[in-house]
Amino acid sequence: MKKMITPFITLLLCTLGLIARQQEPNRKQYTLVIHGGAGTIVKTAMTSAKEAAYEEVLTKALQTGYHILQEGGAALDAVEATIHVLEDSPLFNAAKGAVFTNNGRNELDASIMDGRTLNAGAVAGVTNIRNPITAARAVMEKSEHVMLSGKGAENFAQQVGVTLVDPSYFYTQDRWDALQRALKKDSTAAGENVDNRQAAKAGTVNRDDKFGTVGCVALDQQGNLAAGTSTGGMTNKKFGRIGDSPVIGAGTYANNESVAVSCTGWGEFYIRHVVAHDIAALMSYKQLSVEEAAAAVMAKVANAGGDGGLIALDKAGNMAMPFNTEGMYRGAVDRHGNIEVKIYKD
Amino acid sequence: MKKMITPFITLLLCTLGLIARQQEPNRKQYTLVIHGGAGTIVKTAMTSAKEAAYEEVLTKALQTGYHILQEGGAALDAVEATIHVLEDSPLFNAAKGAVFTNNGRNELDASIMDGRTLNAGAVAGVTNIRNPITAARAVMEKSEHVMLSGKGAENFAQQVGVTLVDPSYFYTQDRWDALQRALKKDSTAAGENVDNRQAAKAGTVNRDDKFGTVGCVALDQQGNLAAGTSTGGMTNKKFGRIGDSPVIGAGTYANNESVAVSCTGWGEFYIRHVVAHDIAALMSYKQLSVEEAAAAVMAKVANAGGDGGLIALDKAGNMAMPFNTEGMYRGAVDRHGNIEVKIYKD
C-alpha cells in the first residue's frame, strides 16, 4: 500500500507546486508603470524640494492612470491620460518641459501602440502640439498611417482637432539655459563638421542631453496591454534627428500576447537593438520572463556602449523597470492601487 | 563482434548525415539578393519591351554587387552600389523614379544596416539627395545618429559631401501622371478629412500607390551581412508620412548572427509587425530557417490585411523572397555568379 501512496503524494505535491507557481500569490500584479527618463540623477545633486516635486507629479500620473483602469477603462486611455500628466509638467523632457534643438526650437516626438490590435501611431518633429501622445493616438485612429512627421503631422493634427499651442508654450528657462550651455560647449569643440561619434566618445557631447523621455505601459481589466512614449528629444539636437521614442519596435511596443514596453535613454542604441520588440520576441519565442527579457536586452544595449532604461509590463501583471544609469524617474501601481515611486537605484 | 560494429556504423552514418546536412551540397549559396518593389504586376499589363527594361536594370544591379563581393569587397559596399543602380533608374520608386507627394514633391526615404556592428543609418523625407542610400550610410558613419529627417538631413548630407541635385532631377512624366490620377480620385472621394483607413477599405485609396521600394541584402566573403532599402514613398503622400523603409527593424535589418532583410509593401503593416527584426528573432530564438521565418512573418502581415514582400539572406547564403502580391521585381546571384531575375509568381 505504501508503494502506491508515495507516488500519489508526490504527484499531489507537484500539482500543488505548479498551481502555486502559476498563481504566484506572493508576486504583486501591476496594472500601470511609468518612467520620466533615465540619466545622471544622483541624490547629492538633488534638493529635497525638487525630489518632492518629481515624486508629486509621478504619483499624480500613476493615480490618473489607475483611476481609469479601476473604472474598467481601456489600457490605451490610461496610457494617454497618464502621459498627459507627465507631458504637462515642466519637470520632464516631453511637451511642456521639452529641451531645445540647436536652432532654439522644441521638436517633439511621441508614439503609442495598442497591444490588442497591434495598431500604432507616431509623430516626429512636431512643434505646436500641446500633447504629442494625443497626436500619435490620432494618427493611429484617424489615419491609415503609423508615422507622420514635421509640418505634415501638424497639419494632420489640426485637421482632426488635436489641441495646438503657440510654440512659445514650450519655453522653460531651465531648458533654454541648458541649450546655451550646450551651444557654448559646441563652439569650444571641433565645430559642426566633427564626427559626432568621436565627440561622444571624447565626452564633448553631453550624454545626459539625450535623456528625460516619459513613458507609460498599462494592463486593463480586459487583459489588454498598451504602451506610449513622449519626448522632447535631445538638447542642441541638429539635422532633424529622430530618436527611438516615435519608432515602433525601438522605443515603444505592445502586444497582448507578451508585453508592453516603453524606453528611455540614448535613442540610437535603442533603434539599432530594436529594444522594445526584442523584449517581446524573447518572451514569445524563448519563454523568458519579463524580468529576464528586459535584463537581457538592456545588457545588449550596455555592451554596445548605450545607456538608459525601460519599463515593461506583461500580460500577467509582472513588470520590470531596469536602467543602467545613475537613476530613472519611475513608478508603478498594483491592482490594489498601491503606488511605488522611485528616483535612484534601489 | 557484430555487436560492436553496428553502433560504429550507426555513428558513422549519423556523422556523415550531419556533414551532408551542414554543407547542403544541393542548396545554392547566394551572396546578394535584390527587390524592386511588390505590387499589382501582372504579365497581361506588361509589354515585352518594358519587361526587358526591368530585367536589364535588375541584372545590372546584381552584376554590380556581385563584382564587389567577388573582389573581396564588403557587404555594405555591395549593398550601397547595387542600390545606386536601382535608384538611378526611372523604373523603380526610389530616387530618380520616385513618386510624387500630394503637393507635387518627391520625398525620399532610405536606410542601411551593417550586420557586423549593428550600426545603422537612415534618412526620411529628403528632397535633393541624388542617392538617399548614400546619405543613410553617411548618417551611420559620419554622425552619432541613426535617423535624420527633412531639411536637417539635407543639411547634414551637404556638410559631409553627399551629392545633391536640384529637386527637378526627380521629375518623371509617368510618376507625375500617376499623381494627377490620384489627385483626381481624391477630389471625387470624401476629401481630406476622411478617415483614410475607411478609404483604404473602400478602395478609394489606390493600394498600389504604396509600392515600388528597392532593396538589397548581401553576404560577403568575410561572412558579414548588410541590408539597405530606398524608396520614394507613396503617390499622393500627405502629412509627412514616414513608411517602413527608413525604420530600422521594420523595413531594414541586418545581424551577422542571423539574417539581412529588406522589405517592400504596405509600410504601415511592416512597421506594426516590426517585420525585418521579427524574422531575425524567429531565426535566433526559435531556430527557424530563413524560409520558415520569412514565411511566418509574411503570414502575420497578410493576416492583418497588409501586402507586399521582402528579401532575406542568412549567414549561410540561404535566401527567401516571399511576397503576397501579384508580382515582385526581384533577383539573386549565387556565389558562382549565376544570376536569377524574376517579376511574376513562379
Characterization of this structure:
2 copies of one chain form a homodimer. By secondary structure, chain A is an alpha+beta fold. Chain A contains 10 helices and 13 strands. In chain A, strands 4-3-2-6-5-1-12-13 form an 8-stranded mixed sheet. The longest helix of chain A is centred in the first third of the chain and has 23 residues, at 48-70. Mean pLDDT of chain A is 88; it is low at 16-21 and 189-207. Chains A and B meet through strand 3, strand 4, helix 5, helix 7 and strand 7 of A and strand 3, strand 4, helix 5, helix 7 and strand 7 of B.
Quick tags:
homodimer, 346 residues, 10 helices, eight-stranded mixed sheet, 13 strands
Largest sheet of chain A: 8 strands, mixed
Task: Pick out the low-confidence regions of chain A.
Answer: 16-21, 189-207
Q: Which assembly state applies to the chains in this document?
A: homodimer
Structural class of chain A: alpha+beta
Helix percentage range of chain A: 25-40%
- What order do the strands of the largest sheet of chain A run in, or round the barrel if closed? 4-3-2-6-5-1-12-13
**Helix-strand pattern of chain A, N to C?**
HEHHEEHEHHHEEEEEHHHEEEE
Rg of chain A over CA atoms, rounded to whole Å, is 21 Å
If you average the pLDDT of chain A, what whole number results?
Answer: 88
Categorize the overall geometry of chain A: globular
Tally of separate helices of chain A: 10
Largest interface: A-B, 54 and 54 residues
The portion of residues forming beta strands of chain A comes to: 15-25%
- Measured between the Cα atoms of the first and last residue of chain A, the distance is 54 Å
The total count of strands of chain A amounts to: 13
